[in-house]
Amino acid sequence: MKERALASLPGIPVLLGVIAAAAVAAWLFFAGVRAAPMGGGALPLISAAVLVALAVFTVTGLYSIQPNQAAVLSLFGKYVGTVREAGLRWNNPFYSKRKISQRVRNFESGKLKVNDLDGSPIEIAAVIVWQVVDASEAVFNVDDYESFVHIQSEAALRAMASSYPYDQHDDGQTALRGHPQEISEHLQAQIAERLGTAGVEVIEARISHLAYAPEIAQAMLQRQQANAVIAARTRIVAGAVGMVEMALAELQKNDVVQLDEERKAQMVSNLLVVLCGDRGTQPIVNAGSLY
Question: Whole domain around residue 31: which residue ranges?
Answer without folding.
Answer: 9-98
